[in-house]
Design brief:
30 strands, 6-stranded mixed sheet, single chain, Lipoprotein, 417 residues, mainly beta, 4-stranded antiparallel sheet
Length: 417
């Protein structure tokens, strides 16, 4: 699989640099790895380990890193953690861990090429769909039961791929402009596209009760504020003025409600029933986070948290929205943020909670994790906060100056008690 298939959370420069560093003799024995015993990754009594595994990799001058491709619910009762190992030249050793609400764990290692686990994975009846990114940013490969499917079989409504995210019955493709935008929905069951268009920017999209919604925090216009929109059945056909035989079809979205005001830059959303919690950061300070609660039934809007907290440096970027993130909001509107700082070229992680009723606290401290442990994803699932941990252990081979690096990646899925 091409390295561009490796859709992971972007890490800080400190992590990238440390990934190429080989241990030398004389390193601090308190942090020196050992292949003869299992590492204790979690050192907190407030969290518990739900699943764990150790995967050995042989790395070279091409570097290497085991990273999270997806950490999200693939069904309402299943949390999916999909990882793979990537170097500068290829991606390999795909691994899928699934946790259900009963606490049962399934690990899949024999994932077929070229579909593997799927950066996005969905279901339609007995069919399993997988979506992977292609060699370029605008290319996508789709698989149904591990067989490649032509997404352009029913071309009407298909638009340029810009930003993909999973949906309950397919996946969404979002444009990113300052004015005219679209949210196209590909439905697994019918294998058809629907291109939903609207005017606005800075938005999140989602599926609710079989409909596509967009919530836009539009700004830099005469209509600054929040707009809630839903797909319509108003089919519009537009002919190319130069070539009449070429047509495009779109469905303008209906505006359900507009709320004037200044919010911020929408980052992602978490949905629980009719409620959608949109995480945003201030227009003036990217490290000040806020949360808005939108009820899609009553169309009521409530600012749960204003962007007044100055948080330490965080890394909240994700290449597929809602597929793996270092931010999360629970059903009560509490915000969780993975904080990352650099010390001696090493990245050090912790988790901070911003309570909906005010105040904040660190709920997973830096000292609660073994050195070299990364937090690669957060997800609220089954009434608890879950975190994906990966520890990179250098296994000494007696040849510190060669170009062979034996690494053990310890993965642990943990949750609050």
């Amino acid at each position: 699989m091409n390295k561009n298939h490796f859709v992971s959370i972007c890490l800080s420069a400190a992590v990238l640099l440390s990934a190429c560093k080989k241990e030398k003799s004389g390193d601090d024995p308190s942090t020196s790895p050992s292949s003869n015993k299992e590492l204790t990754i979690l050192k907190s009594s407030e969290w518990k380990v739900l699943a764990k595994q150790s995967l050995q990799e042989l790395e070279s001058v091409h570097g290497g890193r085991r990273g999270t491709v997806s950490f999200t619910t693939q069904k309402p009762d299943e949390l999916r953690w999909y990882t793979s190992h990537a170097t500068a030249v290829n991606t390999s050793n795909h691994n899928e861990l699934i946790l259900n609400i009963r606490g049962e764990v399934t690990i899949n290692k024999d994932l077929k090429s070229p579909s593997y686990g799927g950066a996005i994975k969905g279901f339609a009846g007995n069919d399993v769909w997988k979506i992977n990114m292609g060699e370029s940013a605008s290319q996508v490969y789709a698989f149904k039961n591990d067989q490649m499917v032509d997404l352009a079989k029913n071309r009407e409504g298909q638009m340029k791929y810009v930003r993909l995210q999973p949906a309950t019955d397919g996946f969404l493709n979002n444009s990113e402009t300052l004015g005219n935008n679209y949210v196209t929905h590909f439905e697994y069951a019918s294998q058809k596209w629907k291109n939903n268009t609207f005017w606005g920017n800075n938005f999140i999209s989602l599926r609710h009760n079989g409909k596509t919604y967009a919530i836009a925090f539009t700004r830099f216009t005469s209509a600054n504020g929040m707009t809630i929109m839903m797909e319509s059945d108003n089919r519009v056909v537009v002919q190319d003025p130069q070539i009449p035989s070429i047509q495009t079809v779109h469905y303008p979205m209906n505006t359900l409600k507009s709320v004037p005001g200044e919010y911020g830059v929408a980052i992602q959303a978490s949905k629980y029933g009719d409620n959608v919690f949109v995480i945003f950061h201030s227009h003036t300070a990217s490290n000040r986070y806020g949360v808005v609660k939108v009820n899609l039934s009553s169309l009521t809007v409530q600012t749960v948290q204003t962007p007044e907290h100055v948080v330490p440096p965080v890394n909240a970027a994700s290449l597929i929205l809602d597929n793996a993130s270092l931010l999360e909001v629970d059903e009560a509107g509490n915000l969780y943020v993975v904080e990352i700082r650099s010390e001696n070229m090493n990245a050090i992680y912790s988790i901070r909670k911003y309570a909906a009723n005010g105040g904040n606290e660190v709920i997973l401290k830096e000292q609660d994790l073994h050195p070299n442990t990364q937090i690669q994803g957060l997800k609220w699932f089954n009434g608890k906060l879950h975190a994906a941990l990966i520890n990179r252990e250098d296994i000494p081979d007696g040849n510190p100056n060669d170009n062979s690096f034996k690494m053990m990646y310890h993965q642990q899925l943990i949750s609050t008690k």
